[in-house]
Design brief:
single chain, about 240 residues, alpha+beta, Alpha-D-Glucose-1,6-Bisphosphate, Chain A, domain 4, eight-stranded antiparallel β-sheet, 8 helices
């Protein structure tokens, strides 16, 4: 397993901002984005986030998609992890895999930042049995010599549950990420990355899935370790198992 665990949103967003060789600029948003999968209709989005999410998804600067992936996990475990990315981040650290802490705030939002100028605030705006929608705002700094890029992003996660040939519970999930940012800044980053861009974007979307799936699979394999692994991070160090 990769020894470096990036934050679920930043990993995907930075890879996309710096990664897609052919950004999508929608001239007619209602026509070009008609095939977007949503867990609920637009009318069911919260009033205070509906237009913001719609603007990003229907007129993205750049996008990335992951293919479906499935793994063995209890659906209840997976859903709990989706609700608590702060606990997931600390679980990776308890497994001695570097992961910058995520802070859960009193209003239900989450915050991540580093010492290089990248920061992001995000929250779930729609949650259903089939998927969820996260909305984020912040600054992405793809490299030390590149400017910080203001951005808004939406991640649409779809998931389903089943059983494998041995009758064990499984989860299948995939994600679509939409980013809206200054096109000039994004174009500069993409020119610098060149041919590596599409691969980086795909890896970013997959890392978002791995962030949750990796811990879900670990809990399924070692259920006795779950209470300590997922406990609140109070007075916990990276080496605690």
């Amino acid at each position: 397993m990769n020894r470096r665990c990036g934050m679920v949103w930043i990993s995907g967003v930075l890879a996309i901002v710096g990664g897609l060789a052919n950004p999508v600029v929608a001239a007619d948003p209602s026509a070009s984005r008609s095939n977007i999968w949503l867990p609920v209709g637009w009318e069911h989005f919260p009033d205070n986030y509906r237009e913001a999410v719609k603007k990003v998804v229907l007129s993205p600067t750049i996008t990335a998609h992951s293919g479906p992936e499935d793994f063995v996990s209890q659906p209840e475990t997976y859903r709990w992890l989706l609700e608590r990315p702060d606990r997931v981040s600390h679980a990776w650290r308890r497994l001695s895999i570097g992961c910058v802490p995520i802070e859960m705030r009193d209003d239900g939002s989450f915050h991540w930042e580093d010492d290089k100028g990248t920061c992001l605030d995000w929250r779930p705006v729609v949650v259903t049995d089939k998927g969820r929608v996260w909305y984020a705002e912040g600054l992405a700094k793809p490299g030390p010599l590149l400017p910080a890029i203001p951005l808004r992003a939406v991640a649409i996660l779809h998931h389903d549950y089943g059983k494998n040939e041995r009758g064990r519970p499984t989860v299948e999930h995939q994600v679509e990420i939409y980013v809206q940012t200054d096109s000039t800044a994004a174009s500069l980053v993409m020119r610098l990355l060149g041919p590596a861009a599409p691969r980086l974007a795909e890896q970013g979307a997959k890392q978002l899935l791995l962030f949750f799936a990796g811990i879900a699979k670990y809990v399924e394999a070692y259920p006795k370790e779950a209470p300590a692994l997922l406990a609140p991070p109070k007075n916990v160090t990276v080496s605690d198992r």
